[in-house]
Amino acid sequence: MRGAYPRVVLGLHRSRHERHLLTGALDLGVAAIDTSTNYLGFRSHTVLARVAGDLLPRLTVSTKVGYFPGTKQSEHSLDGARLYKAVEKAAGDLGREPDVVFLHNPEQSLRDGGGHGRDALTQACAALDDATSKGLCGAWGVATWDPLPLVDLVDPSAPKPSVLMGRAGLLVGIRTLDTVEALAKAWDLDRGRVWGMSPFDGSTGASVWGRIDPRIFLRGGDTFSRIQAAFRASYCLPCVGTVAVGTNDPTHLGELVDALAAEADERAIREYRGLLRERLRGQPA
After folding, report:
1. Cβ contacts of residue 282 below 8 Å, gap of 6+?
2. Among residues 11, 92, 107, 278, which is most buried (max CB within 10 A)?
């Protein structure tokens, strides 16, 4: 039996939403999926309900709200009423209440970083907190691709998320790593309530994974592949308890699950973060 920590969530960002992937995940002990209202052309929830409605009660389901269909392209909004209705619609389309609903990339509507930005973030958080209290979802969180605009907008008196999700992995810059951890501290979230995403920065087939050997970040890493090592290291960059990772291949997912048996070399991780910080200091202002 595998322990509950660290934890894998199957991300559906680029997934074809096929039933065999969900059954394969369950067979591997991966009983959590992460999606969003805007995935699969704003059809993710309805497609999941159609192809795997009977499986959803066996899964922990997280989704995201914040993007809405627009005339020519999707638009982002932090309007509280729209977010609340989006959570309502997500529950209806899925045929069950999501376990977690994330506020999706709030930085998209917070580029000014001024007082209005703080008010907008606070009101958006209040809307999701209200939806949670009304039983439309089990908990709410914040998922951010670029956390830098958020850290100075946190209102200590505003509702706090139960979960934070940010980018993770060896290709994430030190500013993002530090800011995710700063947000977690501001919201009183321990490592078990911080999630990572996109641990391969989009693709395991990128040339970078053939040029570097992430096994140096594991103790006794020679028994694991480079991709497995990169995945296991992502739990330390930043410090997270869960990583959401996408795939259409249950075999690949199984290889990543096997990587959880590896032990990260914390000293090597610290040295790597130090190198990232030195590199940042050496860059022109």
Report:
1. none
2. 11
**For residue 3, what are its two tokens?**
């322990």
Q: Looking at residue 1, what DSSP letter applies?
A: -
CB proximity list for 217: less than 8 A, separation 6 or greater: 170, 229, 232, 233, 236, 264, 265, 268, 269, 272
Helices marked H in 174-236? 174-186, 208-211, 226-233
Radius of gyration of the chain (CA): 19
Structure confidence at residue 71 (pLDDT): 87
Instruction: Output the DSSP codes for 97-144.
Output: --SEEEEE-GGGG-TT-SHHHHHHHHHHHHHHHHHHHTTSSSEEEEEE
Give CA–CA dist 103/90, Å, rounded: 13
Query: Bigger pLDDT: 72 or 283?
Result: 72
The domains of the chain, with CATH numbers, are 7-199+234-257 (3.20.20.100)
Q: Across-strand partners of 245?
A: 10
Q: Is the pTM of this model over 0.90?
A: yes
- What is the rounded CA–CA span in Å between residue 214 and residue 232? 9
